[in-house]
């Protein structure tokens, strides 16, 4: 018996804000769980399992998801927690459905970094005896990563600023991200220093928010009244924990995850995708992801990053709901594939999605989507 194909049936997101001061975690989660069923012909009664992604460290208490089970719709249902980016929760859900054990799964990821000291969250992942006491953390690691990359390939600060401004403009056009005026390249360069050569705006902006994705088996998807967006390939891999032992100017785990996903999808290369929604904690991180995926040669990620099909939603630089960012990328890519096309034009048919986690992108996950 063959495996069932699995489709993204629908998604829902809250607005992504620097701080949801007037809403608690449970409010954000309830909002997306309520809205994700609209227009699908399904209800919470049809859901076989719920998988949520969140962080006890960011939430400030152990087993924090136990306080959110009602909002998640997990009462009297199978529920599991993935303490990693929501794209891994989606991977778990896809495999549950493909196994034949379930038909419909609800994947929810949420984050409120505004209530946390985000730098301490990242430093908790650092080796505790030698590196953490001297202040090594996410910003320092990303700064070192950027220094090496810029020096190796002759990329300038202005090049990075142009990319960041492009992402903010895309997020403003796409909607769903709270912001004032989108910063231009000059504002990006003039922002305070995060870790040389990166300014604060060259790092992803932590935001509060939640996202829900409804997954279904092929027969459910074809009854939903919408063109199914199928998940055709998945892959995941991990860099070594020790930052100093990783390869310079490349993310080996992105390449490994992409190879796995592309092989499952039967794609010869990532360039087969019309749409790419990728995560990156810094502007240089985006370039390394594009090169790892095979969308650009080494040192040429900037050219690819400025292409029309890359991060049409704006990506993680203007809005990074830590732990939920990869699931947002999946939701955004699926919406682009499912969007109606007018005037007889041909819309995008394939997408590649990337999520990341850990210090300086230690873990990476890749999905392929097709209509």
Can you offer a commentary on this structure?
It is globular, with a radius of gyration of 19 Å. Strand 5 (193-195) and strand 6 (198-199) form a beta hairpin. The model has no long low-confidence stretch (mean pLDDT 95). The strands form 2 sheets. It has a 9-stranded mixed sheet with strand order 3-2-4-7-1-8-11-10-9, with helices on both faces. It has a two-stranded antiparallel sheet with strand order 5-6. Helix 3 (86-98) packs across helix 12 and helix 9 crosses helix 10. The protein has helices at 25-35, 56-59, 86-98, 118-123, 138-153, 157-174, 185-190, 218-223, 252-265, 283-293, 301-305, 325-338, and strands spanning 6-13, 49-53, 78-82, 104-111, 193-195, 198-199, 209-217, 229-238, 275-277, 350-357, 363-370. It folds into 2 domains: 6-117 and 205-370, Thiolase/Chalcone synthase (Peroxisomal Thiolase, Chain A, domain 1, 3-Layer(aba) Sandwich); 135-202, no CATH class. Helices cover 33% and strands 19% of the residues. With 371 residues, the chain is an alpha/beta fold. The chain has 12 helices and 11 strands. The two termini are 23 Å apart.
